[in-house]
Amino acid sequence: MATNLSNAKNAKNDEFYTQYHDIEKEINAYLEYNPDVFRGKTVLLPCDDPYESNFFKYFALHFKNFGLKKLIATCYDGSPISNKELSLFNDESNENKTTRNAHMLVLTDPPDFDEIKIVNLPNIKEILSDKYHVIRLKGNGDFRSNEVKLLRDEADFIITNPPFSLFREFLAWIVDAEKKFLIIGSKNAITYKEVFPLIKENKMWVGTTSFNKDMLFISPEKIDASKKPSTATRTVDGIVYLRSPSVWFTSLDHGRRHEPLPLMTMADNIKFSKHKEIKGHEYLRYVNYDAIEVPYTDAIPSDFDGVIGVPVSFLDKYCPEQFEILGTSDNGLVDNFLKTTPGLSKKFVDDYYKSGGTGSYKEGNPTAGYYENNIAKMAYKRIFIRHKRNK
User: Fold this and answer.
1) Which of 48, 89, 105, 351 is a good FRET partner for 332, with 20 to 30 A between their CA atoms?
2) pTM for this prediction
3) Which of 324, 263, 257, 332 is nearest to 294 (CA)?
4) Could you give the CA distance from residue 152 to residue 143 in angstroms, rounded to a whole number?
5) Closest-CA residue to 55 (of 135, 161, 185)
6) Beta partners for 71?
7) pLDDT (tens digit, 9 = 90+) per residue, 322-364?
């Protein structure tokens, strides 16, 4: 366990710190749907140094108006803040610190915080009342430790941005305890075999932040804005942020997921669609699935009762009252009744490479394929859906 945690801490793509306004925007949507969603509840932030985390700042600031019962934030041993910037305990100094800095902070009746100060201070220690002192954990603060598991079991909500490399295990840790949650993860996690079944069974869904924009995160180490930017960063007002194709995953309800997607009929799509792949063309069928290929969510035909293959980005517009999710082409997480063949045929694969296709392929791979103008093409990850009809 310690080795895995160390690897996660050292991985650059795990050190993504969430911006305050991204947290505020997302959680506001749940409050609009249910203003009392947090009233009388305990919120656990299990991957958040309470003296640095914007999650802690946000919930500490809104503790009273949300009607929270308790707020708990925990920090693991290797936190770059607790180990490098702050002396957290009265028995030590920055020059002579113990190696064990795993800690937690619990709020049950916090003072009234000043919004400007709490959002802009590098750390919150300066404005916390003396009686809200940090508590040293006995272990290393790993979320899988018995110490933090007990905090999990006490909590009503788990909210955080967990290490991406431990996302599968972290999600299972939450689900095992049957807790409500709001966490950040990679878009690629959607079709993980450990994740997708939860989405299919309507036990988890994506949050309200659109898929159309990548989230920007604060780097734990300052990035030189004068250096040539990379695809992994974006500079805003002279500040370099880490850029990641991330989304919110949650079991908290929000209004957006109950808004039906406005759609045209198949005939109207073929006649009026803004997409050149759709306008003036018949909808294509996969050679290995009994479904039609729909590369754009707004091109889903309203009058088609069969199975439809759509991009993963469909999920941020998914209304469970309008559609049912049947499976995904990635990882083969789909019932056999949808498969017309065990995989793509050798002829199709040969045609694909002859047409200039690239990438690896193994016989039996459930990737969705189709012919367009007699040219073999493979679709990227697809989610299979079907309209729900009132019967």
Assistant:
1) 351
2) 0.86
3) 263
4) 9
5) 161
6) 43, 107
7) 999 999 987 777 888 899 988 888 899 999 999 888 766 665 5
